[in-house]
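protien #1 (seq + structre)
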Amino acid sequence: TDRDAVAGARHHAVFPCDLPGFHEFQRRLDGLANGTVTIVLTGERIGPGLEDAAWLARARQAQVRTALQIRLVADGDCFVRQFGPSATARIRDKLEAWGAEMVLGTSVASIGADAVTLADGRRLRSAVTALVGALTGPDLQTAELTDDRGFFPVNPQLQSIYEPTVFAAGDA
């Protein structure tokens, strides 16, 4: 995860896309009696954050965590770009039916200790903020195998486009 993808995230957000980050997210949720949990989606892999928001909203709806408010904030146009307008509307309807709030259409300016500030000037209070989807490329010894963003591009057979003797799969 790119912990500097949004100003302040490194110091104030949790990053539940790896096991230590998920445990930290769980620890903070377990210690939270009330308040708003904000999940900020940014970058290329926002699906896990959507799953987190849906899970939390359903738990809240099932009267398990009624004092918590759940908010999903999509940074810029990442959500609509990935899912399209029709699916976005359906997802928003479902999350709102479960009592969650969905914020679209503006960039995230910063993440603070108790709030998420949007580029349009809104300051959204947040007791716990998770950042999901901001990826960095792999840390490979041979830069000749990565593109200009640090990713390891492969063809449909999972073969490196730069070196035909090298294959990679998953988050390699």
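ok now protien #2
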Amino acid sequence: MVTSMPIRRALLLGLASAFVPAMSHASEAPRPVRTVVVTETPAAETIIQTGEVRPRRETDLGFRIDGRLTQRAVEIGSVVRRGDVLALLDENDAANQLRMAEADLASARSAEAVARAAMDRQRTLLEREIVARARFEEAEGNWRTAAARRDSAAAALQTARNRVAYTRLVAEEDGVVTAIGANPSQVVQPGQMVVRLASIAEREAVFDVSERIVTIAPRDIEVAVSLTSNPAIRVVGQVREVSPSADPVTRSYRVRVTLPDAPEAMAIGATVTGRASVPQTPLILLPASALTSEDGVPAVYVLDPQARTLRRQRIEVARYTADSILVTEGLTPGQRVVTAGVSRLRPGQSVLGEETR
């Protein structure tokens, strides 16, 4: 069958046009690109929390006896020293009991002296064989009874003196009053809180932190604590206590940080800021210009040093900044990643890598 010239010419033109892209692709020159060598960067997360200065110890102080409160010498916020009187009870009843105890002791001592003298007389008569031994033993028994009553009266006197002392509520250490539980003229019971005293000898910073921070932070972490109103006032402390359970409402954990040699400016109730650096798994830092995607997943172009071609590698990004990305998975140290013009590249493309660092 003979093919006409116009048809043969059309077939030749079609075949030629089909081979032109392939020939141009085969003859494409390697594209120059910039790359960086993958290295791991030590990473740490800075945690910043706002808290409050609190005393390490707060003690509820109350009277050991019941009675009517006649005077309260402090208010909330009062600074007291050891030995200061905080409150007084009506001491009339206690004073009367003291006088009765003193009288009982005086009577018991007199009775014991009389019984001793009688016993001594009976001993002398017994030695002269004037009285029977039974009379001496009776006198000796009377003396022992009188002596026991004297000792009992002495103990009762000491108890009465203590009751008089218990009408005075005294601070046992330096501190600040943080709460009041009773007012003058009120009848209080033994042990009822009258004054809550916060010791100023040891202070600490208290923070409410999330469960994530409690989980990732080591227990011996150092925390830089500074006054929120004056960051120049700063103390470095350590975590002393972490509450074992979360707050049922906020679901946060209470963390207490020691404040060794805290300045006076860090008074109880002051607002402070705590900063701590939590070490993490080393990350890979790359320029943001290296980021591309594959099916919606973050990726980068990795250079094959032998074939001088590109491979698109999926990655996991920990976080982004304005000019960089922090990669957690997908790359290994020593690989070379393209950092510029990634939008115009394709997998398998031949390139000339220029290392930028």
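The helical segments are 5-26, 92-127, 133-165, 211-216.
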